[in-house]
Amino acid sequence: MTFESITVTVDQLLFSANNRYFLRGLTLDIDVGNLPKQIPLNRIVSLTLHESFCIKVIENCLELRSLKLIGVIKWVSCTINSISRANTKLNQITVVTPTIRSLTELFTSILSITSLRRLEILTDEVAESFKFCILPAPLSKIEQFLLDSGSTINWNDLSQILPDLSSIRFLSVNLIDRNQKLIPSFIFQNLRTLSLGLLEVSFNWIIQLVATTPCLIKLKLTGLVDADDFVVNQRWIHLSESTPRLLRIFVNVSLEQSKELYHCEKIQAPLCALNLNLVCNGDDNDCNLYYGELEWLLTPINFTNITHFDPRVHKIDQKAKLYLRKAPLNVQNMVPIEVMADGNCLYNSIICLSGNAFLTHSELRVRTILELIKNEVFYNNSYSHIVGPLNEGIKNITHNFSFSELYELVGLKNVLKCNIRSIYPNIDYRQDLNIMNSTFEYAQFNLPSNTIFIFWTHTLNEIGARNNNAGNWTPNHFVPLILPSNNPEFQTNLSHPQVLSSDTTPTKSTRKNSIATQVRIPNFNMEDGEQQLFLTSPMISQPAEEISTTPRTKRRQYSIENNSNADTTNVENQRTLARERMSINRAQAIPEEVERQRVLARQRSATRRASFTSQEIEQQRALSRERNSTIRTSLTPEEAAQQRILASMRTMATRATASPKIGK
């Protein structure tokens, strides 16, 4: 197979009418005589054209997106006029011409192409005597404009055209000399990136120009400048003050001094204080349209968490406080803070703990996504078997107000550079939920890190949550936990939370052998009756002074007291839930059901009274008399009269319904 046969085969494939391939790059050089007829001009996307070709070639390129014209300015203007009448998809034009006598005429032709987004003009000379005027062309949508000239350009004249480019976001102009007057009053509202080629331009002129670009993010300066004017003085601070959003400054200028002066403390320290970055090379991608946002998001966040409750700032979440009773004992004295339950509750909790008014949930979402993508392999291998695939989790995070999961909680520890302790209540608890009760540590173990507490809770009480979820309970809300303000010594107990809730085996050590060895913990499988017997053992009720105060005894007493408190708390919780269930059932019951429940209650009472002994009956009567007397003494005269009337009515109703025998 020869090269010619390969070329013929490729031509047949590309130029076949049956294949809809687009030609990405077609260059028609000066040496090309006649254009082959088999070239499908209606499928050309990018074209480079010299002035030796007829304008009709452009008219047939209906799918053209990028065009580069090389020739004299008259031929270029005629070609652009033909494009504006035939093509509406062109979004980039590059003009290479030796001399431009009238930029006004060229712009008049170019601005008539409404689909244009990027314009490049490369010329050796721009006439000095041209005059700009306000162009009658419609408002352009050009976002990127590059003007590279071998001769100097008057910025004041050029700026008269720029108002017609109101959508411009990237501007590059070369060359600008020292003979510049004051900056016009026109403000570049949308300009993000500005690149200037300088020829001994003063730094004061740069400051005045940058002041007209309030949204500028990146500034690039190249060329020849005065060393004393650009480096030695402290006017970089004035430059940054005029554009508060400026993030990057690229400097690649020729100076009499060495490059090390850029990194001296006189310049670098003020720039660092203003979060600016001074780069001393011109290796920069000007076509990057991110405009520095990525550098801002990759800058580490400065997070310092609050630790104690402030009643002037915080509000207690009462429902979360009830759920906190079913959390581990060493966090039950902490205070749950109320945050907005709008799907961003995890990020709202972080904002509440930071106390930073400028931190937003959107920024935390984006930073979390970047963290998960950057360490995708680690998170996927560690948590995908619990939460699901990471890519599905990231898709969910990208939607604002979407509920957070374990991925976000784990990713935030590296975003905030602190440990995050996740606390899950003991409700419908399963073995696979152990990871929800864990402390996720920041990756850099050699650095001291704070620990924040995030609690899984629900916006409804347990009864309401179960009714809305087919009898199951699952959390739908996050709240932060902090220490109470009136109990600062509790902070010492929380400084090592893993002592009480750690799943690792403890260790012991002696003075003779400093090597730590594991202590075997026996497992006891006690029945409920045996455990209750242990908790109610007479040894527990002995006075404290009769028990030895050895450390082992203290630990045993502490464990027994905690278990007793936990049992008491559980009993109270069960009673509260029972009352809530009864009130809900009564509110939802129909009249027939209410009457049936009353009949059943009377039957139960009659059965219970029938089983009483004579002594129990007398005891019940005595208790009833005491209750009635207590109630009567607490009544007001009006209430007592009302009770007498009701009693008389009940007596009359009883007599009316009684049988004749009973009546006699």
TrEMBL record:
For this protein, the record's InterPro entries field holds:
VRTN_OTU_dom (IPR047273)
| Chain spans, region Disordered | 493-513, 542-571, 603-641
From what superkingdom does this record's organism come? Eukaryota
Q: What is the lineage of its organism?
A: Eukaryota, Metazoa, Spiralia, Gnathifera, Rotifera
Q: Where is the composition biased (Polar residues)?
A: 559-571, 608-617
Descriptive protein name: OTU domain-containing protein
